[in-house]
Design a protein that fits this description.
Order of helices and strands: EHEHEHEHEEHEHHEEHE
Shape: globular
Radius of gyration: 17 Å
Oligomer: single chain
Number of strands: 10
Helix content: 25-40%
Number of helices: 8
Distance between the termini: 10 Å
Strand order of the largest sheet: 8-5-7-4-1-2-3-10
Length: 254
């Protein structure tokens, strides 16, 4: 694949029931925008048939590339791995569970004309959101902590749809350390540190699952780590390491 306009990175962990539908949806909406795009699926050590079903779809669609490794390392690691294997000028991150309506991606691409990264925000006045009350409350608390600990002036960092100019983030993504829950926070904190412009866009989203206490604890610990690296040791300003350790255990299926 030579010239690629859009790249979609799809991290997937135990999504055997959704992965083919998600890839089909991305295909449908991407074809309306351009003919030059790729979909990079990152199988994050799934224990079900996610890899099998993704490969089944890829066999019939040569613009789909699958990256897979045997151990579950977290969404952040999967997104970072996928990004480093994209070819597009614009890179989308989207979840694989079909909880977000992807029809708005054309608006996100247009918004990138005036921004470096465009993020879905449940707080946008034009967003349509269905979320359990407990999850809504915990999300509000977490986002308040994000603003306090990192200084990122955003009310929603965690929605699973983001679009960015690859050229703006090619030297930022390798700096990120969070492998799991708070990857989005770290991404936006470093973008803010380097003065990149962020635009928040509306999203239609339906979230049924509730946060687990262990997930909230891990997200909080990730946030403390980000704040420590950002404000105490200034870790994100250090030179980027040239070695990419994740390549040691990755298998790529064109």
């Amino acid at each position: 694949m030579s010239q690629v306009e859009l790249s979609f990175v799809v991290p997937a962990y135990n999504e055997e029931n959704f992965i083919e539908g998600t890839l089909g949806t991305i295909d449908t909406v991407a074809m309306k925008k351009c003919s030059s795009y790729e979909i990079v699926v990152v199988n994050d050590g799934s224990a079900d048939k996610t890899l099998v079903n993704a490969r089944k779809y890829a066999v019939k669609n040569n613009h789909v590339k699958i990256i897979s490794y045997s151990k579950n390392l977290g969404k952040g690691h999967a997104v970072k791995t996928g990004f480093m294997n994209t070819k597009g000028n614009v890179v989308f991150f989207t979840d694989s569970d079909m909880e977000i309506d992807l029809e708005k991606i054309h608006d996100y691409v247009n918004a990138l004309k005036k921004a470096d990264i465009v993020i879905a925000s449940k707080k946008h006045k034009q967003s349509y959101v269905e979320v359990p009350l407990s999850r809504r409350i915990l999300s509000e608390c977490f986002n308040a902590l994000v603003r306090i600990f990192t200084g990122v002036p955003l009310k929603d960092t965690q929605s699973g749809l983001k679009a960015m100019k690859k050229s703006a983030f090619i030297n930022i993504i390798p700096r990120l350390a969070v492998k799991r829950y708070a990857f989005d926070v770290e991404l936006l904190a470093v973008a803010n540190l380097y003065g990149l412009k962020v635009v928040e866009m509306p999203v239609d989203i339906k979230l049924e699952a509730k946060f687990k206490p262990t997930e909230m604890w891990h997200m909080f610990m990730d946030l403390l780590g980000i704040a420590y690296r950002l404000r105490i040791i200034h870790w994100y300003q250090r030179p980027v390491q040239t070695k990419n350790g994740f390549k040691k255990h990755v298998s790529i299926y064109p």
